[in-house]
Design brief:
Serine Threonine Protein Phosphatase 5, Tetratricopeptide repeat; 15% strand; four-stranded antiparallel sheet; alpha+beta
Length: 412
C-alpha cells in the first residue's frame, strides 16, 4: 500500500508536468510560422508547421494555420487538404477523451486537444470553399457551402455569421441552386441592417436609404464577386493593431482599366465573433474552473496527510498551471468584406485599393490570381494584412532584456 500511495503521489506531480512540457513544444513553431506569415514569407510559414505535432493536441490548430499559408501562396489544393484534415480531426476529437479530461482537471484546458471555436470551425469550411472556387471546382465548393449551412443551423447560442451565409449562398448560386442561394442571401441580409442583399441575384447595396457606392451589374452583364479580407488575427493584440491601422469602418475600392467598378461591404468581424463566443462560454468556464479548483485542492490535501511538504509542493504546482486556454487561429483576418460589381466581359485582372474610413489609401494591389469564371460571373478573393505580426508580449520583453543586457556588458 505504501508503494501504491507513493506511486499515486508521483503521478499527480508527473502528469501535469508532462502535460505542461509537451504543450510548450508547439508554441515556438506556431509563433515562428505566424511571424513569417505576417511578413509575407508564406513558404517558410508552411515549413515551420511541417510536420505535425507528435502529441496531436494542437494538430487542428496547426492545420488551420498551415492551410492559410498554403492559400496565401496560391497553393489551393494543399490548403483544402489541410483544412479537410482539420475538419476530420476536429470531428474525431468531438468524442470526449477520458485521459485528456483527467489531465485538464489536474492542469488546465490547454491539456485538452484544440478543436477550434464554433466560428473558427465554420470559417474552415468557408476558406476551403474559396479555394475550391479558385480551382473552379464548383460542386466541391457547394459541398463546403452545405457544411457551412449545417453549422450555422446548429449554433447553440454561438454567434451567427453574415459572411459565411453569403459565401454559402454564392457557392450554391454557382451550381444553379437558386432557391438555396436565395435562402442564404436572406439570412445574410437579416444580420446586416445597413446592407441590402437582393435574394434573387445576390447583388449588394445599402439598406439605409443612402446611395450605394457600388455599381449595379446589368442583367446578363459580366460581374465580379470578390471576397476581401483585411487586417490580422482575432487575438487581442491583433485586433488592437488592426484598429490602429484601419480605423473603425475601412473598405476596398475595385478598379479595372482605371475605372472604378464599386466598393466592398463589411459582412463580418472575427473580433466580434470571438467576443460573442467568449461571452457564450463564460458561464461554462466558471463552473469548470470552480470544479477544477476543488479537485486540485482535494488532491493536494490527500497528499499532505501523508507528506506535508510534498502536498504543499503539489498544491503550488497544480495552481501554477491554472491558466486560461488562449489558443486561437491567429492567421485569420479581422475584417471580412464582399464586393459584387459590374466588370468587363474580358476581365484579366483588377486593382484593389484599401481605404480607411475617411478615404485615405492604405494599400493597393493588382489581382490576376485567383480569377475564376463561370458563365458571366468572375470570382476572386484577396487579402491585405497591413499590420506586421509582433510576437507575444512576454517574448518581446525577453528580447528587450537581452538587448539591454548586451548594452550594459559593452559599457563595462
Amino acid at each position: 500500500m505504501v508503494h501504491v500511495r507513493h506511486s499515486l503521489q508521483a503521478s499527480l506531480v508527473i502528469v501535469p508536468l508532462a502535460v505542461a512540457i509537451v504543450g510548450g513544444c508547439v508554441g515556438p513553431r506556431l509563433n515562428s510560422a505566424r511571424h513569417n506569415f505576417y511578413r509575407g514569407d508564406f513558404r517558410q510559414a508552411v515549413t515551420n508547421l511541417t510536420p505535425l505535432a507528435l502529441d496531436k493536441r494542437n494538430n487542428v490548430l496547426i492545420l488551420m494555420e498551415r492551410g492559410m499559408s498554403h492559400q496565401a501562396r496560391g497553393n489551393y489544393e494543399a490548403s483544402v487538404d489541410d483544412w479537410n484534415a482539420a475538419v476530420e480531426e476536429a470531428k474525431r476529437l468531438d468524442y470526449y477523451s477520458l485521459s485528456q479530461g483527467a489531465a485538464s482537471i489536474l492542469s488546465n484546458d490547454e491539456a485538452m486537444a484544440f478543436r477550434g471555436a464554433p466560428y473558427e470551425r465554420t470559417l474552415l469550411h468557408a476558406f476551403a470553399a474559396k479555394s475550391y472556387l479558385a480551382l473552379q471546382m464548383w460542386e466541391d465548393a457547394a459541398v463546403e457551402a452545405r457544411n457551412i449551412i449545417d453549422r450555422l443551423e446548429n449554433l447553440d447560442g454561438f454567434p451567427d455569421d453574415a459572411y459565411c451565409h453569403y459565401l454559402a449562398g454564392f457557392c450554391l448560386e454557382m451550381i444553379n441552386d437558386h432557391d438555396g442561394a436565395a435562402f442564404q442571401y436572406r439570412a445574410a441580409s437579416k444580420l446586416m441592417p445597413t446592407v441590402k442583399i437582393d435574394e434573387n441575384t445576390g447583388r449588394i447595396g445599402t439598406g439605409s436609404g443612402k446611395p450605394a457606392r457600388s455599381g449595379r451589374p446589368e442583367k446578363g452583364g459580366a460581374q465580379l464577386v470578390c471576397f476581401i479580407s483585411m487586417g490580422s488575427s482575432p487575438s487581442v493584440s491583433g485586433i488592437v493593431r488592426s484598429r490602429y491601422a484601419w480605423g473603425p469602418s475601412p473598405y476596398a475600392e475595385i478598379y479595372s482599366g482605371g475605372k472604378l467598378l464599386g466598393h466592398s461591404h463589411a459582412f463580418s468581424n472575427t473580433g466580434s465573433l470571438l467576443s460573442s463566443t467568449e461571452k457564450r462560454l463564460a458561464a461554462v468556464r466558471i463552473v469548470k474552473e470552480t470544479t477544477r479548483i476543488v479537485i486540485k485542492d482535494a488532491a493536494a490535501n490527500a497528499v499532505s496527510r501523508e507528506n506535508e511538504f510534498l502536498g504543499e509542493l503539489l498544491r503550488w504546482f497544480l495552481f501554477a498551471l491554472e491558466t486560461p486556454d488562449r489558443r486561437r487561429w491567429e492567421t485569420l483576418p479581422n475584417l471580412l468584406h464582399v464586393a459584387r460589381v459590374p466588370c468587363p466581359p474580358d476581365l484579366k485582372n483588377y486593382r484593389v485599393v484599401f481605404k480607411t474610413t475617411d478615404g485615405r489609401t492604405l494599400a493597393q494591389k493588382t489581382i490576376d490570381n485567383p480569377l475564376a469564371r463561370r458563365d458571366n460571373v468572375f470570382v476572386s478573393f484577396c487579402r491585405d494584412i497591413q499590420c506586421p505580426y509582433q510576437p507575444p508580449v512576454r517574448q518581446r520583453v525577453k528580447k528587450s532584456r537581452r538587448r539591454i543586457g548586451k548594452k550594459i556588458k559593452r559599457r563595462d
